From TrEMBL:
<dbReference type="InterPro" id="IPR036388">
    <property type="entry name" value="WH-like_DNA-bd_sf"/>
</dbReference>
<keyword id="KW-0812">Transmembrane</keyword>
<dbReference type="GO" id="GO:0003677">
    <property type="term" value="F:DNA binding"/>
</dbReference>
<dbReference type="GO" id="GO:0006352">
    <property type="term" value="P:DNA-templated transcription initiation"/>
</dbReference>
<keyword id="KW-1133">Transmembrane helix</keyword>
<dbReference type="InterPro" id="IPR007627">
    <property type="entry name" value="RNA_pol_sigma70_r2"/>
</dbReference>
<dbReference type="Pfam" id="PF08281">
    <property type="entry name" value="Sigma70_r4_2"/>
</dbReference>
<dbReference type="GO" id="GO:0016987">
    <property type="term" value="F:sigma factor activity"/>
</dbReference>
<comment type="similarity">
    <text>Belongs to the sigma-70 factor family. ECF subfamily.</text>
</comment>
<protein>
    <recommendedName>
        <fullName>HTH luxR-type domain-containing protein</fullName>
    </recommendedName>
</protein>
<dbReference type="InterPro" id="IPR014327">
    <property type="entry name" value="RNA_pol_sigma70_bacteroid"/>
</dbReference>
<dbReference type="InterPro" id="IPR039425">
    <property type="entry name" value="RNA_pol_sigma-70-like"/>
</dbReference>
<dbReference type="InterPro" id="IPR000792">
    <property type="entry name" value="Tscrpt_reg_LuxR_C"/>
</dbReference>
<dbReference type="InterPro" id="IPR014284">
    <property type="entry name" value="RNA_pol_sigma-70_dom"/>
</dbReference>
<keyword id="KW-0472">Membrane</keyword>
<keyword id="KW-0731">Sigma factor</keyword>
<dbReference type="InterPro" id="IPR013324">
    <property type="entry name" value="RNA_pol_sigma_r3/r4-like"/>
</dbReference>
Protein backbone atom coordinates (compact mmCIF):
# COMPACT_ATOMS: atom_id res chain seq x y z
CA UNK A 1 0.00 0.00 0.00
CA UNK A 2 1.52 3.28 -1.14
CA UNK A 3 1.11 6.38 1.00
CA UNK A 4 1.68 9.86 -0.35
CA UNK A 5 5.13 10.79 0.96
CA UNK A 6 4.36 14.52 1.02
CA UNK A 7 1.22 13.96 3.09
CA UNK A 8 3.13 11.68 5.46
CA UNK A 9 5.84 14.30 5.93
CA UNK A 10 3.19 16.89 6.68
CA UNK A 11 1.66 14.65 9.33
CA UNK A 12 5.10 14.02 10.80
CA UNK A 13 5.83 17.74 11.05
CA UNK A 14 2.46 18.51 12.59
CA UNK A 15 2.77 15.71 15.16
CA UNK A 16 6.25 16.94 16.08
CA UNK A 17 4.59 20.28 16.88
CA UNK A 18 2.05 18.57 19.12
CA UNK A 19 -0.91 18.47 16.73
CA UNK A 20 -3.21 15.77 18.11
CA UNK A 21 -5.50 15.65 15.08
CA UNK A 22 -2.55 14.83 12.83
CA UNK A 23 -1.56 12.06 15.21
CA UNK A 24 -5.10 10.64 15.03
CA UNK A 25 -4.90 10.77 11.23
CA UNK A 26 -1.59 8.90 11.34
CA UNK A 27 -3.08 6.32 13.69
CA UNK A 28 -6.02 5.64 11.36
CA UNK A 29 -3.74 5.57 8.34
CA UNK A 30 -1.45 2.86 9.70
CA UNK A 31 -3.47 0.92 12.25
CA UNK A 32 -4.82 -1.93 10.08
CA UNK A 33 -1.49 -2.46 8.33
CA UNK A 34 0.48 -2.46 11.57
CA UNK A 35 -2.00 -4.84 13.17
CA UNK A 36 -1.59 -7.37 10.35
CA UNK A 37 2.17 -7.00 10.56
CA UNK A 38 2.25 -7.55 14.32
CA UNK A 39 0.06 -10.64 13.90
CA UNK A 40 2.86 -12.24 11.89
CA UNK A 41 4.84 -12.33 15.13
CA UNK A 42 2.50 -12.53 18.11
CA UNK A 43 -0.28 -14.69 16.66
CA UNK A 44 -3.08 -13.23 18.77
CA UNK A 45 -5.19 -10.21 17.85
CA UNK A 46 -5.48 -8.67 21.31
CA UNK A 47 -1.71 -8.86 21.76
CA UNK A 48 -1.13 -7.36 18.31
CA UNK A 49 -3.51 -4.52 19.18
CA UNK A 50 -1.58 -3.90 22.38
CA UNK A 51 1.71 -3.87 20.49
CA UNK A 52 0.46 -1.38 17.90
CA UNK A 53 -1.14 0.88 20.51
CA UNK A 54 2.04 0.87 22.60
CA UNK A 55 4.10 1.88 19.58
CA UNK A 56 1.73 4.65 18.56
CA UNK A 57 1.47 6.00 22.11
CA UNK A 58 5.26 6.00 22.30
CA UNK A 59 5.42 8.01 19.08
CA UNK A 60 3.07 10.59 20.55
CA UNK A 61 4.94 10.73 23.86
CA UNK A 62 8.23 11.24 22.00
CA UNK A 63 6.82 13.56 19.37
CA UNK A 64 9.75 15.95 19.74
CA UNK A 65 12.07 13.23 18.39
CA UNK A 66 10.17 12.91 15.12
CA UNK A 67 12.27 15.67 13.56
CA UNK A 68 15.15 13.17 13.51
CA UNK A 69 13.18 10.42 11.74
CA UNK A 70 14.00 10.25 8.03
CA UNK A 71 11.37 7.70 6.96
CA UNK A 72 8.37 7.60 9.27
CA UNK A 73 6.73 4.59 7.64
CA UNK A 74 9.84 2.43 7.99
CA UNK A 75 10.37 3.77 11.50
CA UNK A 76 6.87 2.73 12.64
CA UNK A 77 7.04 -0.75 11.12
CA UNK A 78 10.46 -1.29 12.68
CA UNK A 79 9.12 -0.22 16.06
CA UNK A 80 6.21 -2.68 15.78
CA UNK A 81 8.60 -5.47 14.83
CA UNK A 82 10.88 -4.74 17.78
CA UNK A 83 7.97 -4.51 20.20
CA UNK A 84 6.58 -7.80 18.88
CA UNK A 85 9.95 -9.52 19.27
CA UNK A 86 10.23 -8.21 22.81
CA UNK A 87 6.86 -9.72 23.59
CA UNK A 88 7.84 -13.03 22.00
CA UNK A 89 11.07 -13.18 23.99
CA UNK A 90 8.97 -13.17 27.15
CA UNK A 91 6.40 -15.62 25.77
CA UNK A 92 8.37 -18.30 23.94
CA UNK A 93 5.29 -20.44 23.32
CA UNK A 94 4.02 -17.91 20.77
CA UNK A 95 4.95 -18.25 17.12
CA UNK A 96 4.31 -16.58 13.81
CA UNK A 97 0.71 -16.37 12.69
CA UNK A 98 -0.05 -17.85 9.27
CA UNK A 99 -1.96 -14.85 7.94
CA UNK A 100 -3.77 -15.93 4.78
CA UNK A 101 -4.62 -12.42 3.63
CA UNK A 102 -3.89 -12.22 -0.08
CA UNK A 103 -4.71 -9.52 -2.59
CA UNK A 104 -6.70 -10.89 -5.51
CA UNK A 105 -8.08 -9.77 -8.82
CA UNK A 106 -5.12 -7.91 -10.28
CA UNK A 107 -4.24 -10.62 -12.79
CA UNK A 108 -7.58 -12.02 -13.84
CA UNK A 109 -10.84 -10.67 -15.20
CA UNK A 110 -13.24 -11.25 -12.33
CA UNK A 111 -16.17 -10.17 -14.49
CA UNK A 112 -15.89 -13.56 -16.16
CA UNK A 113 -17.62 -16.09 -13.83
CA UNK A 114 -15.49 -18.97 -15.11
CA UNK A 115 -12.26 -17.04 -14.60
CA UNK A 116 -13.46 -15.92 -11.18
CA UNK A 117 -14.04 -19.51 -10.12
CA UNK A 118 -10.66 -20.56 -11.52
CA UNK A 119 -8.89 -17.76 -9.68
CA UNK A 120 -10.59 -18.59 -6.39
CA UNK A 121 -9.32 -22.13 -6.73
CA UNK A 122 -5.79 -20.99 -7.55
CA UNK A 123 -5.89 -18.41 -4.76
CA UNK A 124 -6.85 -21.07 -2.24
CA UNK A 125 -3.76 -23.10 -3.10
CA UNK A 126 -1.57 -19.98 -3.18
CA UNK A 127 -2.75 -18.99 0.29
CA UNK A 128 -1.97 -22.46 1.59
CA UNK A 129 1.50 -22.25 0.06
CA UNK A 130 2.11 -18.79 1.57
CA UNK A 131 1.07 -20.04 5.00
CA UNK A 132 3.64 -22.83 4.72
CA UNK A 133 6.57 -20.55 3.84
CA UNK A 134 9.40 -20.30 6.40
CA UNK A 135 8.91 -17.42 8.82
CA UNK A 136 11.40 -14.98 7.30
CA UNK A 137 10.35 -15.84 3.73
CA UNK A 138 6.73 -15.14 4.56
CA UNK A 139 7.44 -11.87 6.36
CA UNK A 140 9.58 -10.55 3.51
CA UNK A 141 6.99 -11.67 0.97
CA UNK A 142 4.14 -9.92 2.78
CA UNK A 143 6.03 -6.68 3.36
CA UNK A 144 6.84 -6.43 -0.34
CA UNK A 145 3.67 -7.88 -1.88
CA UNK A 146 1.04 -6.55 0.52
CA UNK A 147 2.66 -3.45 2.00
CA UNK A 148 4.55 -2.28 -1.08
CA UNK A 149 7.89 -1.75 0.65
CA UNK A 150 11.10 -1.71 -1.36
CA UNK A 151 14.01 -4.06 -0.66
CA UNK A 152 15.97 -1.46 1.30
CA UNK A 153 13.00 -0.59 3.50
CA UNK A 154 12.31 -4.24 4.29
CA UNK A 155 15.98 -4.69 5.17
CA UNK A 156 15.76 -1.79 7.63
CA UNK A 157 12.52 -3.01 9.18
CA UNK A 158 13.75 -6.59 9.68
CA UNK A 159 17.36 -5.61 10.43
CA UNK A 160 18.77 -7.78 7.65
CA UNK A 161 20.74 -7.03 4.49
CA UNK A 162 19.11 -6.10 1.19
CA UNK A 163 20.75 -9.18 -0.28
CA UNK A 164 18.99 -11.35 2.30
CA UNK A 165 15.68 -9.70 1.43
CA UNK A 166 16.26 -10.48 -2.23
CA UNK A 167 17.20 -14.08 -1.46
CA UNK A 168 14.20 -14.65 0.80
CA UNK A 169 11.78 -13.15 -1.72
CA UNK A 170 12.96 -15.35 -4.55
CA UNK A 171 12.91 -18.39 -2.30
CA UNK A 172 9.28 -17.58 -1.58
CA UNK A 173 8.48 -17.14 -5.27
CA UNK A 174 10.26 -20.38 -6.14
CA UNK A 175 8.30 -22.31 -3.51
CA UNK A 176 4.99 -20.81 -4.61
CA UNK A 177 5.78 -21.50 -8.24
CA UNK A 178 6.56 -25.13 -7.42
CA UNK A 179 3.47 -25.70 -5.27
CA UNK A 180 0.97 -24.04 -7.57
CA UNK A 181 2.71 -25.30 -10.69
CA UNK A 182 2.15 -28.86 -9.49
CA UNK A 183 -1.50 -28.07 -8.85
CA UNK A 184 -1.92 -26.63 -12.34
CA UNK A 185 -0.25 -29.60 -14.01
CA UNK A 186 -3.57 -31.06 -15.15
CA UNK A 187 -4.26 -30.23 -18.85
CA UNK A 188 -7.58 -28.52 -18.14
CA UNK A 189 -5.86 -26.12 -15.73
CA UNK A 190 -2.73 -25.30 -17.69
CA UNK A 191 -4.24 -22.12 -19.11
CA UNK A 192 -4.36 -20.72 -15.57
CA UNK A 193 -0.62 -21.03 -15.27
CA UNK A 194 -0.16 -17.93 -17.40
CA UNK A 195 -2.10 -15.91 -14.83
CA UNK A 196 0.18 -17.24 -12.12
CA UNK A 197 3.36 -16.53 -14.08
CA UNK A 198 2.22 -12.97 -14.72
CA UNK A 199 1.62 -12.51 -11.01
CA UNK A 200 5.00 -13.95 -10.06
CA UNK A 201 6.91 -11.91 -12.65
CA UNK A 202 5.61 -8.78 -10.95
CA UNK A 203 8.23 -9.32 -8.25
CA UNK A 204 11.15 -9.15 -10.65
CA UNK A 205 10.47 -5.41 -10.93
CA UNK A 206 10.87 -4.76 -7.21
CA UNK A 207 14.64 -4.27 -7.14
CA UNK A 208 16.03 -1.09 -5.68
Amino acid sequence: MKIDSVYLQQLQQQIARGNQRSFEDLYRLFYARLLNFALLYVHKREIAEEVVNDVMINIWNKQQDLHQVQNLETYIFTAVRNRSLNYMSKNSSWHVLPDSTFEQGAIINLNDPEKQLEWKEISFHLNQAIDQLPEQCKTVFKLIKEEGFRYKQVAEILNISSRTVETQLFRAIKKLDKVVGAYLNAPRKKRNYFFLIGWLLFFTWLFE
